[in-house]
Amino acid sequence: MEQTLFESVDQYLNNLFQFEDEHLQAAIQSLKKNGMPQISVSPSQGRFLQILAALCRATRILELGTLGGYSTICMARPLPENGKLITVEFNEKHAKVAEENIRRAGLSGKVEIRVGKAMDHLKQMVQQKEEPFDLIFIDADKEPYKEYFQLALQLSKKGTLIIADNVVREGKVLNEHSDDVNVKGARRFNEYIASCKEVTATIIQTVGVKEYDGMALALVK
Ligand code: SAH
Ligand code: DHB
Ligand code: MG
Fold first, then answer.
1. Is the CB of 36 under 6 A from ligand 2?
2. Which ligand number lies closest to the CA of residue 63?
């Protein structure tokens, strides 16, 4: 495939900054080896998540959608000694591969993988009055993003940052008649956060080595 300008620039940035250490590279290799989808956040986006986690001074992080634990590792890195990241994954094989990657990265003590559906775990955490999180990263199935966000709000406090990946879908969100469930989910989500009074929100378009997409950032008031 022809490399786009955005891909070439992202590659240039990867070479310059060396975003990926051996553990992140190993996580990517593990996806290939296990025939898992290559849909982790990109290296530069991983660094962006790491910076946001540090900026939030996060001690408690929640992630929906673990895959091989690439974004998990990025966000868990700035956690303090007593910090904790809970990541939810419904595919047992993905959870197993992620567990190994997280162990290799030396983060097992701070990361807890919860196997099961994101919705079930979210509802359970709300019900059990789980302590609020400082950072919540939504990156599981796209259709119920709005509901995930509403539940995430209930697990938030003032200053919590809620991030949602893949909300632009190669610009397909422009199509109000799309019958793609991912696009419909993103459109519903985007409309919801745009008028949600409880957050200050934006969406940043993302380009580079991955598909053209976007990340939503919502700061709880
Ligand atoms: N955050 C990861 C990528 C996640 S890909 C990274 O950037 O490294 C999306 C993941 O969500 C997949 O592993 C998929 O199995 C999982 N998933 C999809 N639907 C889910 C659901 N309903 N509940 C929990 N996990 C789900
Ligand atoms: C898909 C999911 C993702 O989390 C991602 O970053 C890219 C694509 C998908 O399901 O198509
Ligand atoms: Mg994603």
1. no
2. 1
